[in-house]
Amino acid sequence: MLGILSVLILSICCTGCRTILEPPAGTMIRHPVDGAVMVYVSAGAFTMGLSEGNAETVAKDLGQDSADSLWAWEAYPKQTVQLDGYFIDKYEVTVTQWQAYAAKTGAQTPHQTGRHFDTPPAPLIPAAAISWKQARDYATWAGKALPSEAQWEKAARGTDGWLYPWGNTPPTPEHGHFGTRAQLPDLYTLVGSYPMGASPYGALDMLGNQYEWTSEWLAPYPGNPLAYKMADYTPDMNGCLRGGSWYHGWVGFYAAKRFGLPPDETHFHIGMRTVWLPPRDYFESAAFRRDRAAAKKRERHLTWLRESLVE
């Protein structure tokens, strides 16, 4: 027990101001239901959204004339948000995970072509063509949830107000499944293929590869000075997606990017990842020790698998 407690730190959770033990940021576990490797996002405040100056910087980085080309007004204003600690999937949910869920529950599997659901898929291809309801149902089955926008964004950019998961330097094709501004990729790629794009907590593919569903509607943030620009499309109650996608290109490759679709609509570049709020006594339990050990073993297997698939 002392060995486990030595790696835990005291943290004040914002809900109810209760003191709990929590592990270091980025601590990995393997979730006992769906087998996902998850990373820990520590309790505390972070910077969410963008100032207009931030947006102009991002536009320049992404080769755009102005922030309007990014619809960056959706991310105004910059704000400080407080969150409790939580785990988030290190990788996007894969086809293999989805098929295991479907086999156990009878859930309908989306129809795709090529390297996806209609043929034996590469095991680390992200599940795609997932609707909001399908994503929610998967998360509920696993005892988890879709991330809120704040949970997703904090996991992507950390607490220092970074514009991208890796910092404030402009994106390159080595940071994610982006291709170049002149030539986009043909399709998604294996999850976890771009370690240079890791977030401060170790989450991968937070930009590029797939868009990912959140639990919230796309609506103006409180205090957004340009909220009127969203008036033409936010009344449609679009579910909010995060993370950009290889298909939509470089206008989406920044951590505060928001996008929306009706919850029953989906496309071949839309997937998901989940979050989990552990029980209060989890970090002092045998289950935590078990799940940490399982994560290390799973990571070794995923590394071997990824390397074997790209040979």
What does it look like?
With 311 residues, the chain is of the alpha+beta class. It has one domain: paralog of FGE (formylglycine-generating enzyme). It is 22% helix and 15% strand. The chain has helices spanning 2-5, 52-61, 95-105, 132-141, 149-157, 286-310, and strands at residues 9-12, 19-22, 28-30, 37-41, 44-48, 79-83, 86-89, 211-217, 239-242, 259-261, 270-271, 275-276. The strands form 4 sheets. A 4-stranded antiparallel sheet has the order 3-4-7-12. A 4-stranded mixed sheet has the order 10-9-8-11. The chain has a two-stranded antiparallel ribbon with strand order 1-2. A hairpin with a 6-residue loop joins strand 3 (28-30) and strand 4. The model is unreliable at 1-7 and 9-18 (pLDDT under 50).
The separation of the N and C termini measures: 42 Å
Strand residue percentage: 15-25%
Radius of gyration: 19 Å
What is the class in the CATH system? Alpha Beta
Strand order in space, largest sheet? 3-4-7-12
| SSE pattern | HEEEEEHEEHHHEEEEEH
CATH A-level architecture: Alpha-Beta Complex
Binned, the helix content reads: 10-25%
CATH superfamily: paralog of FGE (formylglycine-generating enzyme)
Q: Could you say what the CATH topology is called?
A: paralog of FGE (formylglycine-generating enzyme)
Main beta-sheet strand count, sense and barrel state: 4 strands, antiparallel
What is the domain tally?
1
Sum up the overall morphology in one term.
Answer: globular
